[in-house]
C-alpha cells in the first residue's frame, strides 16, 4: 500500500519542478546605466518583484543600478530586460520579464537623480519603494513592500499592501493606503480631500495646525487619541473623532480597524 503513495509523491515533486524550473543557487547580474538630465526631465519607473530606491544627489545625470536575480539559473537573467526610453522630457524606466510565467525573478533598482529632476510615477510589486530628497508630485504604488518617503518637494500618494507606510518631510500628501500594517504620515498640506487608511494596524498622523481642514478619524475595537493640537470637535467618541481646523476646508479621512489611531501636532522642521 505504501508504494503507490510514494510513487504519487515522486510524480507530484517532478510535476512541481517541471512547472517552476530547476530551483538552485541564486544567480545575479548587476547593470549600471547613466543618462543625461536637466531640470525639465521627468522620471517614471515601472518594475516588478523588487526594491525601487530613488535618492536625489548633486550630480547632473540619472544613474541607474539594477540587480537582476533569478533562482532558476544564469540563463534566466537574459529574460530580464531593463528598458529605458526617452520621449520629449520624459525618461521612462521599465523592467520587463520575457521568461516562463512559472518563475519568480526579481530586480532591485537604485536610482540617483539630480535634485531638480521630477519624479512622477513609481510602481513595483513584492518590494519596497524608498524616495528621498527628490522633487515632484509622485505617485508610488507597490504590494507586499514598505513605502518610505522623506524630504520630497511635492505632493505624494503612497499605496501598498501588507507593509508599512511612512511619509515625512513632503510639501503635502494626496493619500496613504495599506493593509495589515501601520501608517505614519506628516501632513504639511493638502490640496483636496484625502484618505489615509489601513486595517488591523495603527495610524499616526502629524498634522500642520495652520491648515484649514476637517479631520475624521475612526477605528474599531481600539481608540482615537488627539494630543497637542486643538480641534473644533463635532463628534467625540472613543473610536471616532470629527473636528475642524481653521475654517473647515478639505476633508482628511483616516480609517483603520482593531488598532489605535493618534493625531499629533506637526512640529516645524529644523533646517
Query: Overall pLDDT, averaged?
Result: 91
Helical stretch count? 1
Helix content: under 10%
Q: What gyration radius follows from the Cα positions, in whole Å?
A: 23 Å
First-residue to last-residue Cα separation: 76 Å
Order of helices and strands: HEEEEEEEEEEEEEEEEEEEEE
Give the low-pLDDT segments.
Answer: 4-21
Characterize the overall form: globular
Query: What is the count of β-strands?
Result: 21
* Strand coverage percent: over 45%
Count of folded domains: 2
Briefly note the structural class of the backbone.
mainly beta
What characterizes the major β-sheet?
21 strands, mixed
Explain the layout of strands and helices.
Layout: H1 2-20, E1 27-36, E2 42-46, E3 52-57, E4 61-70, E5 80-87, E6 90-97, E7 106-114, E8 118-123, E9 129-135, E10 138-141, E11 147-159, E12 165-177, E13 183-187, E14 194-197, E15 203-207, E16 213-218, E17 224-227, E18 232-236, E19 240-245, E20 250-255, E21 261-265
Parallel strand pairs: 2-6, 2-8, 3-7, 3-9, 8-10, 9-11, 10-11, 11-12, 12-13, 12-14, 13-15, 14-20, 15-21, 16-20, 17-21
Antiparallel strand pairs: 1-4, 4-7, 5-6, 16-19, 18-19
Amino acid at each position: 500500500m505504501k508504494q503507490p503513495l510514494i510513487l504519487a509523491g515522486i510524480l507530484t515533486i517532478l510535476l512541481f519542478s517541471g512547472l517552476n524550473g530547476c530551483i538552485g543557487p541564486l544567480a545575479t547580474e548587476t547593470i549600471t546605466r547613466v543618462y543625461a538630465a536637466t531640470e525639465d526631465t521627468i522620471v517614471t519607473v515601472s518594475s516588478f518583484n523588487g526594491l525601487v530606491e530613488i535618492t536625489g544627489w548633486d550630480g547632473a545625470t540619472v544613474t541607474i543600478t539594477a540587480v537582476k536575480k533569478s533562482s532558476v539559473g544564469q540563463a534566466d537573467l537574459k529574460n530580464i530586460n531593463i528598458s529605458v526610453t526617452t520621449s520629449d522630457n520624459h525618461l521612462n524606466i521599465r523592467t520587463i520579464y520575457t521568461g516562463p510565467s512559472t518563475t519568480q525573478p526579481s530586480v532591485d533598482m537604485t536610482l540617483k537623480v539630480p535634485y531638480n529632476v521630477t519624479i512622477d510615477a513609481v510602481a513595483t510589486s513584492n518590494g519596497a519603494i524608498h524616495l528621498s530628497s527628490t522633487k515632484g508630485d509622485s505617485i508610488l504604488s507597490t504590494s507586499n513592500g514598505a513605502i518610505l518617503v522623506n524630504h520630497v518637494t511635492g505632493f505624494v500618494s503612497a499605496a501598498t499592501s501588507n507593509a508599512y507606510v511612512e511619509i515625512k518631510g513632503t510639501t503635502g500628501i494626496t493619500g496613504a493606503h495599506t493593509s495589515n500594517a501601520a501608517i505614519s504620515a506628516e501632513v504639511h498640506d493638502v490640496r483636496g480631500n484625502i484618505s489615509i487608511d489601513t486595517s488591523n494596524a495603527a495610524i499616526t498622523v502629524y498634522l500642520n495646525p495652520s491648515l484649514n481642514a476637517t479631520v475624521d478619524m475612526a477605528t474599531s475595537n481600539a481608540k482615537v487619541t488627539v494630543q497637542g493640537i486643538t480641534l473644533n470637535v463635532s463628534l467625540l467618541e472613543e473610536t471616532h473623532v470629527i473636528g475642524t481646523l481653521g475654517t473647515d476646508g478639505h476633508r482628511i479621512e483616516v480609517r483603520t480597524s482593531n488598532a489605535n489611531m493618534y493625531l499629533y501636532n506637526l512640529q516645524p522642521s529644523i533646517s
